[in-house]
Task: inverse folding
């Protein structure tokens, strides 16, 4: 485990602040096209899940949504754009 108690696979996503407090950082990859309201809901719910799961203060949680263009997202060898997604 790392200094913050995270398992090895989670080290990159959990850093320590100056006060040795958890600062979870979640990266969410989604195919483009979600509304602003949907993204706000994702940010709120992921934040709450991390607060409950690891006990991090809400103000320390960071969420980054990556909007991936449909032509850059592959499913079974075909782009999401070509699949009509």
Result:
């Amino acid at each position: 485990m790392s200094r913050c108690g995270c398992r090895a696979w989670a080290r990159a996503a959990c850093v320590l602040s100056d006060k040795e407090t958890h600062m979870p950082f979640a990266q969410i990859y989604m195919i483009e096209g979600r509304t602003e309201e949907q993204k706000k809901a994702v940010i709120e719910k992921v934040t709450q899940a991390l607060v409950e799961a690891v006990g991090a203060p809400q103000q320390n949680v960071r969420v980054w949504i990556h909007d991936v263009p449909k032509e850059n997202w592959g499913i079974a060898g075909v782009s999401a754009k070509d699949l009509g997604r």
Q: What stands out?
A: The chain has one helix and five strands. The two ends are 40 Å apart (CA to CA). Residues 5-12 have pLDDT under 50 and may be disordered.
